[in-house]
TrEMBL record:
Entry EC number(s): 3.8.1.2
Protein name, as recorded: (S)-2-haloacid dehalogenase
Keywords: Hydrolase
Biological function: Catalyzes the hydrolytic dehalogenation of small (S)-2-haloalkanoic acids to yield the corresponding (R)-2-hydroxyalkanoic acids.
SUPFAM superfamilies in alphabetical order: HAD-like
Catalysis: reaction(s): an (S)-2-haloacid + H2O = a (2R)-2-hydroxycarboxylate + a halide anion + H(+)
Organism of derivation: Sneathiella marina
Annotated PANTHER family: HALOACID DEHALOGENASE, TYPE II (AFU_ORTHOLOGUE AFUA_2G07750)-RELATED, HYDROLASE, HALOACID DELAHOGENASE-RELATED
Amino acid sequence: MTTLKLDNIKACVFDAYGTMFDVNAAAREEQAALGDKWEEIANNWRMKQLQYTWLRSLQKRHADFWQVTGDALDFALATSNIDDAALRDRLMQLYLKLSAYPEVKSMLEALKAANIKTAILSNGTQKMLDAAVENANIGALLDGSYSIEDVGIYKPDPSVYQMAVDRLGVSPSEISFQSSNAWDAYAAKAFGFNVIWCNRFGQADERLPGTPDAQITDLSALPPIVGA
C-alpha cells in the first residue's frame, strides 16, 4: 500500500472503537483489581465482542452492542476465573468513557478547518457513541455519529456503509473511511469508499477483497485531504 493524496473528498468517516477510542482503556483503568490478567482480559473482551457481532448477524439474532459488549466481558472474566459483579459493573461503565487517542481532537479540528465533513460510523449504540463523544469533547467537530442500530445488522454488512452515503449526501467515491480494524477497512474498500487503514497494532494484511488505499499507524498521519 502506498501513501496517497486524497482528492475530491467531501467527508471523512471514522470507525469508533479501536480507531478513535482506546478499547483497552476500561481494563487498563482496573489494573489494580485485574492484576496481571488485565491485558489478557482486554484482548479476550475485544475478540469475543467482535465475534458476537459477526455471529449474531449471520444467525439473524440481533442484540445491540451494549448487550454484546456485556456478554463478551462475561466471557472474558470467566475465562480468567474472575467472578466479581461489582468489578463487572465498573468495567461496563468505564466502557462508556473510553479515552480518545491523543491525536483525535487535533485531527478533527484540521479536517473541519478544511471544510471536510466528519462523522463516526460504528457498531456502538447511539447511547454508547454519544457518551464516548461527550467524554472526548469532540461533538462540535462531528457532523454526525451513526449507529448500526438504524439498520439492525453489524459491520461489515454493506447496508452499514450505505448509511454514511445516505446521511452525508455524498457518493462513496467522495468519502474517505478510516478504521483500525483490518476487516472493516477491507470491507469498506470493497463497498466503494476511499479507505485509510489505521493499523495501530501492526497487523498483517488481510486476505479479503478490497485492499485499502493506504496504511498509517495513527490518525495524525492521514494523507492530505483535498475537498471537492
